[in-house]
Amino acid sequence: MKPGRVYLVGAGPGDPGLMTVRGLQLLREAQVVVYDQLVNPLLLEAVSSQAKQIFVGKQAGRHSIAQNEINEVLVNYALQGYRVVRLKGGDPFVFGRGGEEAESLVDAGIPFEIVPGVSSAVAVPAYAGIPLTHRNHASSFAVVTGHEAIKTMSSVDWAKLATGVDTLVILMGLHNLPAIVAKLVAHGRSPETPAAVIHQGTTEQQKTVIGTLADIVDKSAALKAPALIVVGDVVRLADKLDWFARAAAADKYDFSAAGEEWALQF
Questions:
Q1: Catalytic residues
Q2: What is the pLDDT of residues 100-132, one digit of tens each?
Q3: Which of 56, 115, 201, 235 could be disulfide-bonded to 194 (CB atoms 3.0-4.6 Å)?
Q4: Which residue, among 34, 27, 156, has the nearest Cα to 96 in the 3D structure?
């Protein structure tokens, strides 16, 4: 049997309106959809009722499916000739383990396509009014995972990040925020550096806490994951540029309309 094809599709950061046209097209044509916890459920409404939907995300209190098991699911359905969409929050190649899944497909002789998504690393700060670069504030930025902050043998060079990068975006770092702050300050970043923690970015539940490295841990203590951390002078622009909070407060950003109408526009 000729194998099917697997599409590694980025679902974007949460707002369904940020899904790509190509991703939407593939969702509609998919015979099997393998999706994660952070995928907006509204996106699944575009999937055919005849298609099989398989949840492989992590949920509190439930056994998490190992990455090698997810790889096997993709390979097995493709070998049966199915058109498979692997729907991943954000972008599949930005801390989404899409590279590992692509490797497994190559090893199994399965044709595949990468469909980039809007990464939370850039979209969430934008929805909080924080540009990652700005001619007067920052000419460089880096994106890292917060999981590395507590590892004895971390692959992240915190010394270089502390003083060699203007804007630092940290994904999956809320739980380790005290350790992250301690490493940055220990390696020379000023405690007065502006910092922000953005919870559930690009969604109706978005909440932004602004502070400095000296007080951001205490200020954001009540927030829960998922959350993204931004460190750098660009955070100073948040109050001035926070278009999303103002639009939501004025009821000028209709999430229900975005969810109901986005799939009808193409």
A1: 36, 58
A2: 999 999 999 999 999 999 999 999 999 999 999
A3: 235
A4: 34
